[in-house]
Amino acid sequence: MKATISAALAATTALMTTPGVLANGTAWARYDSGAISGLGARNIGSATMSGRVSAVSAVREKNGKVTIYVGAASGGVWKSTDNGTTFKPVFDKQPVQSIGAIAIDPSHHDTVWVGTGESWMRNSVSVGNGIYKTTDGGETWQYMGLPQSEHVAKIAIDPRDGNTAYACVPGKLWSDSPDRGLYKTMDGGRSWSLVLKGGNLSTGCSGLSLDPMNPNVLFAAMWDFRRKGWTFRSGGASPTAKSDSGLFRSADGGRTWIEVTPAANKGFPAKPYGRIAVTIAPSNPKIVYAFVESTHSALFRSDDGGKTWAQRDNSQNMVWRPFYFANLIVDPTNPDRVFKPDLTLIQSTDGGRTFSQVGGGAHGDFHDVWIDPTDPKYVIAGDDGGLWYSHDGGNKWWKANNLPISQFYHVSVDNDDPYHVYGGLQDNSDWVGDSEYPGGITNSRWENMFGGDGFWMFADPSDKSYLYAESQGGFLARINRHTHQMQLIQPQAGYKEKLRFNWNTPVALSPHDPDALYIGAQFLFHSSDHGKTWQRISPDLTTNNPEEQKQEESGGVTVDNSYAEMHDTIYSISESPKQAGLIWVGTDDGNLQVTRDGGKIWDNVVGNVHGVPAHSWVSWVQSSPFDAGTAYVAFDRHTYGDEHPYIYKTTDYGKSWIALVTPANNKGIRGFVHVVKPDILDPQLLFAGTEFGLWISPDDGGHWAQYKGGDFPDVPVRDLVVQPRTSDLVVATHGRGIWIIDDITPLRHLTAAVLDTDVAFLPARPAVQRIEAFGGWAEGDASFTGPNPPDGAVITYYQKSRHLFGKLKLDIYDSDGKLIDSLPGNVRRGIARVTWSMHVAPPRVPPAAAIAGNSAQGPRVVPDVYTIKLVSGDKAYEQKLDVALDPRDPFTLADRKAQFAAAMKISGLFERMTDLDYQIVAVRDGARVRAAKAGNDAALRKRLDALADKADAIRKQIVATKEGGAITGEEREREHLDEVYGAINGYEGAPTGYQLARVDVIARELDDTAKAFGALRAVDLNDVNAALKAKSLPEITVPDRSPAGAGGMQGAGMFRDRDAFFEHD
Amino acid sequence: MHARMVVFTALLGFALAAHAVTAEDLIAKNIAARGGADKLAAIHTLKLQGQMIFGGSFKLAYTQWLKRPGKLREEARLQGLAQVQAWNGHQGWSIQPFGGRRDPIPMSADEAKALAEEADFDGSWVDAKAKGNVVTYLGTEDVDGTNAYKLQVKLKDGNTLVVYLDPDAYLPIREIARRTVNGAPEVTQTDYGDYQQVDGVYFPFAISSGPKGSTPDNRMQISIASAEANVPVADAVFAFPATVAAEQGGEP
Q1: Is B223 on the interface with A (CB under 8 A)?
Q2: Extended beta strands in A426-483, E state
Q3: Quick one: which H or E segment has residue B53?
Q4: pLDDT digits (tens, 9 = 90+) for A508-556
Q5: What domain range is A659 assigned to?
Q6: Domain B21-75+116-232, architecture per CATH
Q7: What's the pLDDT tens digit per position in A981-999?
Q8: How far is B128 from chain A (nearest CA, A)?
Q9: What is the ipTM of this complex?
Q10: What is the dihedral of CA B18, B21, B27, B28, to 10 degrees?
Q11: Same structural domain for residues A87 and A141?
Q12: What pTM was computed for the model?
């Protein structure tokens, strides 16, 4: 067998060290998602900041519970069946995660329609691909079409017929499209007809309301809108420019429509319009509310089903940013009670005449509200900070702390142990969190450090007390992480100058100077003193197109000039780790600039990139950590309506570019690219984050596979970073928080040759015995906790196919060749991982009234080199495993060995105790069995009973025997030994002198007990056996030892003949 | 081709592929793959022995007895104490001895359903109609890199199982159970592997189970070391015990 193992190992090693052996055109044929996703991934959240909720729908069930569906802006659909105590993501297997609308069939609550693609059309909005439906409460979903819709604002279901539904589709944000308007299906979604279309290719449906009492009556709001990289319009290009927005009414189920106009409908405002929200009061369909964006934006109300209208509220929170907040929710039991989501939530109780701010302590930037028709005081609302519950009609709010739908833009890590994760989020500031913490990464392990929308964030590499954090428009600060005192360090404009900082302004640290950092406006700024002073080290690196700098005119009907439309800006910065002063800069208007002398000379090399249209947004440029002349660039053209991936590479400082991923050859990558980065150790390993997930290439961009490990969904990946000490890949998703793929070392060794082998070990980072510690506290079930890394040595191997037949196990041998553990294998295809806890078998402990809890686990092995034997059917493979101490341990290896030796000494003591107990029980029970058979021999029975009682009395010095499950306080030698075992095993440094002394004391006590039993054997047992012998009865024998399995996890020996009792008919 | 059109086409392709097979075909292939209906029916009792690991490092000896029709008992033993769960065909019960009590306690009807389902070692999809179960083919789905056939079994007891069959071997590789316990949903994922024959019938010797979404370290893993078919097993083994001593070997 040994020879077989060695041969297999040699073959594996040979294959692993000759990566080119199969590196031909088909060598990577086995490289796919299944091959790599077994690395796993863990979501560390957080849910404390949560993220934007774009749609909320709920229903009170017959059993009184409330079923809630939450649509995340870019984090899928979450369902709760317990009123929000727990949520499960139910949409994760779908190819898009942006949610615009959710509708529950009122007559069949397990039928739910989801319109993908959020309709709150901010600059960072994600996209969908149509309509989905479940008929089993979200367990399975059917795709129901409208693939070009991209965004869905509302879905309405005919209460008379669940197969009839309407989908209100605004359509594409960034480009013309005929696939927009109001769609209707009458066959459950199998086919759709466009029943209301806009007057041009930029007008779609933004609002929809159906009369629940006469579902043939419905109102639809049409919206003319368009976003470009540098401008946005809701309505026409200016407040008074022509717009095709309008409000329409149908009384025949959408066959014909009549526009609501001021001429025909008294009181309705004059055109042009921007976005309109409309809703019919469910309890009185004659009452209709419409928020209309116009030069005099306001709420309007009709009391006659839409024939005539009257203006109502026009306060700031009614009219503010209609593209983001055009929604109205009327109490289903009270037509005069209306919610309008906005910067804060406002509520009217007088039919819209007046509104009060009721957002209370919620985050703000509300989008949707659900009111319980059976208890209208119960309100659920979604905003940019997540989900909120009110039980007082919408005044005070509980926060949902169990929705990890946070939308990170960027991520970085420090080198602490455990390292921290830093990042900024959409409307949720900049946070620092733990990558690992005893008890798990709870919400409280994240700390907010800044404000606004968060973007780049770094630990200051030269001073651990400080960090850098950024909000929108390059608002950069250096912050004391202990006091939170901040100093704003954004570079300032010169005389009559305007600096153009992007919404997502790039900030970069220098890999050569821990005091230095860069920030980009249209110029590149460099500071070598933590932002105290700045030097401009470039001219304007953008196209500086005046037509793209008219942000003060942006907004359409309602001016909206945040930094979101700032354009002709630097968007990506990367200084070469290999050459100081070699800096790459990408701009949002399509320039790709490089300097090799710290900014004296800049070269715009974008013209050398072939196949990318001019002015394409450079979403990411990344210099190689391996070669000064090498860099990667990604272009994101979704702002031109082109959602294809573009990734290029240069090896000659940008003179020429290799197309790695293009629309014509996307290599399986789906969606526009946000980030492309090489690994920090393996130049062949590339990572790309797109709007629809994470892709990994093993051969420098030749082949790609989507990473789906740990149920990682098809969520936007905006940034990623490899932690250098741990080799963890830390991924910033825009919608599902931070995910960590622990230790990507195996990916660095997943060659084409390995992929073609049946089974092969893959190298991993050194196995460290992380400190085993307790932390956290009970938080109930309504709080998110991110998992820690696996607690043990992670063994990684590759299997060409899923293991199905025969045994798959990992046997662990110590350096003496002794088998110390055996683990079940991981059967999955591709990379597979198994965690070895590194604990030896627990002591054998004599049975007693209850379990000896501390002794249920053996001590951890001492650091050493161990041998792993992977047994797969009739084949075996070997690999060495080097186990080390945790560098944080405050003790030496010698201390650690002393602790292990002490624990094993106690194990030996338990062993003695188990044997002794077994012998005593043999005498006790042997006597009792014989006593029961003594018949009329009263004298013999009395002697046997006396012997049994004496044996039992001795045994009761060893083990606690009071049953009943109460706290008996009964402690005997076994319980005392378990206690000191727990104390020694719980800390892996050298045991204390008093602990060792305690072990010796218990050993003496056990000796005394053994002597007592010895005396019993020598006198009482001998006498009884003599009497038995005299009567030709079988003597009582005492076994030398307990059976091998007794007392440990086997326990079989303690059941004696019980199994025989079981197994008969 | 537009990115989303690719998706749509892929979904269309999936839909077409889904029509190529039926639940009946898959059930027949599963039965054949396991060894055939006759061999399966010839197994009246089954005794499985091995070990159970939970929390990554706690190991217990494990034994399971199964007996037709629909009886099950499983034990996890540590330090001479046996934690027992059993279903006698009508009632579920357990013994939880580790805290000091060794008297049997009845299970709630909801909790016992999982045992009753497990007791059907033919598989709930075999003779489904006679059992009152409804099987639906749901297409294929990726299971850790394997594109598995997906069968939904709506059980007579109100719970739902989704069984994923290996596309080549037609043996279950994963099962998602959706159960309602005390009015609350519980979703459990169980992965199967290490199939070995027992009297000509394949049974999984590796079983990994836990709440759906739990990390591998938090799942319960059962490794079967030996299996015997048609071992005589008394019905009393599954019945609510009359005495404690026989269940726990008379200790202490």
Answers
A1: yes
A2: 430-434, 441-442, 446-448, 454-459, 466-471, 475-480
A3: strand B45-54
A4: 999 999 999 999 999 999 999 999 999 999 999 999 999 999 999 999 9
A5: 481-550+561-706
A6: Clam (2.50)
A7: 999 999 999 999 999 999 9
A8: 20
A9: 0.90
A10: -170
A11: yes
A12: 0.94
